[in-house]
Amino acid sequence: MGKIKAAIVGATGYVGQELFRILYSHPEVEVTAVTSVSYTGKKYSDVYKNFNGITDLNCTEGDVEKLSETNDVIFIALPHGIASKSVTTSVLEKCKVIDIGADFRIKDKKVYEKWYGVEHFGEEVLKEAVYGLCEIHGEEVKNARLVANPGCYTTCSILTLYPLVKEGLIDTNSIIIDAKSGVTGAGRKLDIGTSFCECNESIKAYKVASHRHTPEIEQELSLAAGKDIKLIFTPHLTPMNRGILATCYAKLKTETDYKTLEKVYEKYYADKKFIRLLKEGIFPETNHVKGSEYVDIGFAIDERTNSVIAIGAIDNLVKGAAGQAVQNMNLMFGLDESTGLDTAAIFPI
Most CB within 10 Å of its CB: which of 40, 180, 195, 296? Predict the structure, then answer.
């Protein structure tokens, strides 16, 4: 078998660029096409000068149907509401698709339309989309034609809480997630709210009680619990380029010691390549995961309130987006899931 031919639709956003950077060094992949609406016809290395001397590809139009005829996999790194129009059964009969956007993450079409405010046009393929959180749905991903790459906040939040929810150790009505993200999570578009002067030396909550990752987190944790879960999720914008830190609070059902919870986390994650369980008293920092596929998780028990505080950290552009997409691709094509991703974090950054 030759190299996997891959096309990146929406290659000039931060996630698309990160994806190209990872795939360029992937030993089993050849990137054949990079598409962009804003930069059609321009050399990719003129858009991102860190690719100067590395690629001669020009940005083209993103016709998914045409790309499916000449590629083995298409990565779609576009805002919500676009992929559902372009991913069809015809496309999936010819190649695999990994949607890094939100269009296929939420299984209930009505829930998606309520939270995202747009019509979903891909109902015929929505039912077969696999939620691509590899550490939980890896076996399903292996046989998928269409993978919905999870969101960045959701990846960090779900993985941090999953063992506790799955084992029924916490009161699921008490879950509160307080998460912080670097500014790249807002994308590359011009927006005064994410400009340097507005973000530097400041931190702010946004989309309070209304962030679109909320139903995604609830969907996956509800599956783990075997019942519907409603939780509080509040995101914050912090003055750093990349990284996510999710601090998750929940009431324990019974008095539990650290070692008991440690064994629960090890039960689910001891064999997971990219999840690092930190020692007691040590907690995740975004500096230690930036530029990598790793998820760092640590926790503490507050005996006064019989609560657990579980903390997770990821790089929002890598494990939270592009790296996770490559991890999914590896599984879909029968490769070791760490292929092209097995690197340490960049430090300092």
Answer: 296
